[in-house]
Amino acid sequence: MGIARSERDQETRTVLFSLAQSIQERDRVTYEHSRRVATYVQRLARYIGWNRHDARDLALAAMVHDLGKTWIANTILNKSAALSELERREMERHPVIGARILIGCEVPSFFVETVLYHHEAWDGHGYPAGLSGEDIPLSARLLTIADVYDVLTSQRPYKAPLTEYAARDRMLAGSSTSFDPQLLDVFLHLLNDTPNFILPQHVCALPHQPMEPMAAIVDM
Question: What CATH fold (topology level) applies to the domain 2-198?
Answer without folding.
Answer: Hypothetical protein af1432 (1.10.3210)
